[in-house]
Each structure stands twice: as C-alpha cells, then as structure tokens.
Design a protein that fits this description.
Number of strands: 13
Helix content: 25-40%
Number of helices: 10
Shape: globular
Bound molecules: 1-O-phosphono-alpha-D-glucopyranose
Order of helices and strands: EEEHEHHHEHEEHEEEEHHEEHH
Oligomer: single chain
Structural class: alpha/beta
Largest sheet: 9 strands, mixed
Radius of gyration: 21 Å
Length: 315
C-alpha cells in the first residue's frame, strides 16, 4: 500500500545514506571500488537505495562519503560522453539505464573526513537540510529490506505516534551482538508496531534486551541532530546513532519500531551479498531462467563431488 506521502505532514524530503565506510569485509574488491557500487546483478546497491528513497517521495539523497570515494557520487551524475557513444550506436535502452540514477533523485555530497562512526556520519547531514525539514530518513546501503515499502509503513506510525520510527527484524540469539538491539515495552497486542524503551549497540548475548535488531531504515525526528552532538564514543570507540536514539528515549521522545516480516539482505559482506545477487538474479526477466538452471547444475556437481569425498573417507 502506498501512502500519498508528499501530502503528508511527515513527508520526507531528504534520505541520508552513509557510504563512507572502508568496506573492509569486502577486500580486495573494495580496494578501488566502493562497496556501494558493487552490482546486485547489474545495478549498484546504492541505486537500489535511491529507487527506494524516490518511491518514498524523497527528492534528495544526502550521500555521506569519504574523500577517496568520489565514484559513489559520480554514479548519480550524467555521463554525456557515454550517452553520446551509446546514442551513436543506437543503444537507446542503455542510455535510459545509465540515466536512471541521476533521474531518480538529486544526490547531495557530504564528506566525512574521518571514520568516527555512523552517528557522526548521520550528524553531518544536518548541514544540507532545509529549515522546514522536521523529519529525516536514514537508509543504510548495506541493508536491502524487501519488499520495499517499510518506510511508508514507518511514516504512518510516525503520523500516529510522533517521534521517531525504526525498522526491526528478529535475529537469532547468536546474532544480537552484530546489531543495535531494542528494549521494547511489554504489550499483549499482536501488532507489527512496538514502543521502544531503550536501545543498545552490539550487546553481548547476556546483555541483549531482546532479539529485535535495527535493520538499516530509520525515520528520525530532527531532534536527533541535537542528541548526536551530545553523545560520546560508544561501541567500537565510535559515535553511535543507537546511543543518540537511546538518549532521546531517556528524555521522553517517543520511539517505535515496525517489525519487518519480509526479507532482508546484507550487502556488506560476501556471505550476504551473494544470496542477494542470487535472489535478484532469479527474479530477473532476462537472466532468471538461465540462472535457475545453472544453480541446479552447480548444486548437482557439488553434491556429486561431496559424495565422492564421503565415499573415499569411508573406505
Ligand atoms: C549499523 C548500526 C546497527 C544496526 C546495523 C544494521 O551497524 O550501528 O545498530 O543494527 O547497522 O545493519 P553496522 O552494520 O554498521 O556495524
């Protein structure tokens, strides 16, 4: 369901996309290629995020990048030379394809000189907001939350309760230490919306207040910037967005989560990126059928090889 978001008091103009990380979990690919440009089938992950932001009704993507990651911004610029070459060759479809990122949304660069944490990165975006922007969205480009539309649901929740709204997924106990984890108010309602009492970044299993984890989609009241100025380094010695949200909760600011029931892919490491490519690839109109056959064949080959290894171990 799509809310007429541009008519809404909570209309989001700017989506902040932190993209300054070194991509260390993806080396050596990310030695020269920013991880946000790695393709999911044929489209860079950050273009999928831009499409989701545009679908929400946002007109501006504030991309936080490091000084050596100019390529991320360049992807949102028109490339007249390449367009001309493709035109000359009669490849008009491909001209459309390469214009898409620039047509979707206006990318606004924000530079983070030092990797001081997600909280620091988000805080830098305040400088590009208009005075009338009371709400800002943050989308982490590592997280693909599918089907898209969770941000619209979060906007409805903000319209009802005010404050800030985040997206959560339930993770296994073993995984709580990888995420920002919510402490939620006990209620008996069977709803996808819960009120948050606190939030802690990457807790140890024994300290985790729940298994509900923040998953890369935030709809934040502008008050977040003031809170971000007041936090001190937290988990990993970095300024954490989680800690600023927790501070707002302590001060009485309403924070809710929408528990996402669909799929999620983590593009930030090969273990999550490969399944995302397979998932998108299988749904692709051109490559889908061929990929399905190829996967079946690869699986059969691997299973046959495993059987041979098992047999030789038994002998
Ligand atoms: C960040 C946030 C964390 C959140 C996670 C979702 O962590 O700090 O709260 O749960 O994204 O992907 P990172 O993955 O950058 O370590």
């Amino acid at each position: 369901m799509s809310l007429p978001i541009d008519e809404h008091v909570n209309a989001v103009k700017t989506v902040v996309v932190p993209a300054a990380g070194l991509g260390t979990r993806f080396l050596p690919a990310t030695k020269t290629v920013p991880k946000e440009l790695l393709p999911v089938v044929d489209t860079p992950g950050i273009e999928l995020i831009a499409a989701e932001a545009a679908e929400l009704g946002a007109t501006r993507l504030a991309i936080i990048t490091a000084p050596n990651k100019a390529g991320v911004l360049a992807h949102f610029e028109r490339s007249s030379e390449l367009e001309e070459t493709l035109m000359e060759r009669g490849k008009t479809d491909q001209v459309e394809i390469i214009r898409r990122a620039a047509d979707l949304i206006k990318a606004v660069p924000v530079t983070q000189d030092k990797p001081l944490g997600l909280g620091h990165a988000v805080g830098l975006a305040e400088s590009v907001l208009d005075d009338d922007e009371d709400v800002v969205a943050v989308m982490l480009p590592d997280d693909l939350v599918l089907p898209t539309g969770v941000m619209e649901r979060m906007a409805q929740v903000r319209a009802e309760f005010g404050g800030s709204v985040l997206c959560a997924v339930e993770v296994s106990e073993a995984d709580v230490s990888k995420y920002g984890i919510f402490e939620i108010e006990a209620d008996t309602k069977d709803s996808d919306v819960k009120k948050v009492k606190g939030m802690v970044e990457k807790p140890a299993i024994e300290d985790a207040p729940s298994r509900f984890a923040a998953t890369g989609r935030y709809l934040l009241d502008r008050k977040i910037f003031d809170a971000l100025r007041r936090i001190t380094p937290g988990a990993g010695g970095e300024l954490q967005l989680t800690d600023a949200i927790d501070l707002l909760i302590d001060e009485g600011h309403p924070v809710h989560i929408v528990i996402h029931q669909g799929k999620r892919h983590d593009l930030g490491n090969p273990g999550g990126y490969i399944p995302a490519c397979v998932d998108f690839g299988l749904s692709h109109p051109v490559y889908g059928a061929q990929l399905k056959d190829a996967i079946k064949q690869i699986l059969a080959e691997h299973e046959a090889a495993e059987r041979i290894t098992d047999d030789s171990q038994v002998k």
